[in-house]
């Protein structure tokens, strides 16, 4: 039976929860490396600290996809229970995260945060395929991207904005600035509120054959279903997986290293090493007094450290704001596609190819950028981001069994998290140092990876996936 076409605001309402999800991702992506550096992490250790994010996705999303495929409640629906569980956990973690007193606690909370976001996110992807007919799928994923772009831009600018409103972005050594704490608290409320909005405004449709669904649910087992789904993985999904591999390697590189790379190379204000200004014990560790405050060499050393740290925090705010530009340009990309796809079909393959290559050149341009021109890099990257969040899912949803949409979306996530795991376990550090020791070379590596992803679109030849 052909599904009913939905109006713009119906699609908007069912996708609105992505505003909160993206608040979580943008705050995590834009400011976790800053938190790690503040708590004492070395730059080359940061990708390894980020490994929590892809590992939790690898474990959580197939399980959540499977569970949501096999859930139905006349009162609570199919995907909405997972939206709510993820929202409660993620909002609580966002609130707690910037209060982390030690590096290992922040790294542990990142595991919890990313797991919670993943619980909410993948059912949202499946909901689009649940409710929309094939002719509206591109439009549905593009509207999700529009909302994601809004969330990315606002959340990335939050620390800068609250600082301008009078909240300090300065703090003692090893302490997260108040502006970041306030931004994460706002993100927690937005995450929870936007998910509730979708839950209360969107009604889920029951399975087309409810009796058959309930019967199959009784016989369903996760491991056998997982193995069968892997065997049934369509060729389009495998080809898209290669594209996703290089795409997400690039963006993981940006999230983990853009703050140290750009504060150092573009703004000429790297994070100062407190060990150069403080008294050290016999093991080379910083001495602290009874109040846990750093004992500096003298007053001049303390003043110099605080001055350099303030410049770094100001620059980190500006990097966060510049990063937010990619959310703004992805929003513009999605808005144009939204109007276009309301009445016309598009060639998903070539849109995705061109968008990824543009983003690749955006990353490479960072090497030549100045503080006033850095935004042009992120404008180009935003076109890639907008396409990554919509085109692969639109192509995939046209190629898989609708009864296993949640499981397949979860498995598709493997092609997102595996490159991030490789990157976190040393892939970034090894590869960018082949170009040069400076951290900005990690952004050049990201650009090369994204251009390769774009060229891999030549592999897609299934007409059903390409046109939509």
TrEMBL record:
The chain crosses the membrane at residues 12-36, 48-68, 80-97, 103-121, 141-160, 180-200, 240-258, 318-338, 350-368, 374-396, 408-432, 438-460. It is a multi-pass membrane protein. The keyword Transmembrane helix applies. InterPro entries: MFS (IPR011701), MFS_trans_sf (IPR036259). The keyword Thylakoid does not apply. Keywords: Membrane, Transmembrane, Transmembrane helix, Transport. It is found in: Membrane. Pfam families: MFS_1 (PF07690). Its main location: membrane. This is MFS transporter.
């Amino acid at each position: 039976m052909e599904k009913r076409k939905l109006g713009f605001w119906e699609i908007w309402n069912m996708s609105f929860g992505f505003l909160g999800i993206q608040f979580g991702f943008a705050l995590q992506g834009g400011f976790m490396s800053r938190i790690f550096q503040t708590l004492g992490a070395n730059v080359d250790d940061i990708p390894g600290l980020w490994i929590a994010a892809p590992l939790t996705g690898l474990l959580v999303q197939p399980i959540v996809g499977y569970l949501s495929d096999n859930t139905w409640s006349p009162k609570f629906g199919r995907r909405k229970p997972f939206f709510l569980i993820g929202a409660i956990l993620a909002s609580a973690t966002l609130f707690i995260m910037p209060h982390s007193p030690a590096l290992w606690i922040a790294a542990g909370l990142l595991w919890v945060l990313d797991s919670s976001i993943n619980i909410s996110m993948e059912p949202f992807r499946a909901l689009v395929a649940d409710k929309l007919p094939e002719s509206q799928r591109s439009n549905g994923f593009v509207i999700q991207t529009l909302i994601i772009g809004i969330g990315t831009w606002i959340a990335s600018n939050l620390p800068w904005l609250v600082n301008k409103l009078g909240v300090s972005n300065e703090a003692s050594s090893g302490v997260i600035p108040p502006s970041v704490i306030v931004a994460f608290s706002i993100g927690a409320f937005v995450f929870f509120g936007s998910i509730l909005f979708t839950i209360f405004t969107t009604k889920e449709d029951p399975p087309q054959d409810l009796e058959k669904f309930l019967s199959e649910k009784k016989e369903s087992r996760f491991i056998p279903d997982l193995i069968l789904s892997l065997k049934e993985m369509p060729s389009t999904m495998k080809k898209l997986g290669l594209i996703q591999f290089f795409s997400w390697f690039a963006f993981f590189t940006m999230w983990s290293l853009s703050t140290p790379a750009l504060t150092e190379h573009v703004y000429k204000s790297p994070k100062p090493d407190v060990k150069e200004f403080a008294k050290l014990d016999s093991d080379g560790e910083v001495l602290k007094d009874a109040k846990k405050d750093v004992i500096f060499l003298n007053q001049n050393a303390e003043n110099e450290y605080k001055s350099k740290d303030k410049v770094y925090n100001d620059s980190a705010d500006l990097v966060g704001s510049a990063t937010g530009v990619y959310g703004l340009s992805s929003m513009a990309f999605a808005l144009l596609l939204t109007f276009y796809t309301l009445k016309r079909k598009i060639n998903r393959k070539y849109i995705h190819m061109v968008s990824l290559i543009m983003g690749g050149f955006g990353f490479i341009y960072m090497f030549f950028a100045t503080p006033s021109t850095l935004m042009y890099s992120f404008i180009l990257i935003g076109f890639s981001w907008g396409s990554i969040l919509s085109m692969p899912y639109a192509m995939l949803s046209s190629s898989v069994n609708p009864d296993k949409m949640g499981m397949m979306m979860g498995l598709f996530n493997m092609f997102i998290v595996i490159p991030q795991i490789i990157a976190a376990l040393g892939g970034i550090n090894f590869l960018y140092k082949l170009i040069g020791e400076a951290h900005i070379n990690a952004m050049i590596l990201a650009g090369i990876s994204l251009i390769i992803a774009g060229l891999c679109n030549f592999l897609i030849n299934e007409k059903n996936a390409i046109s939509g």
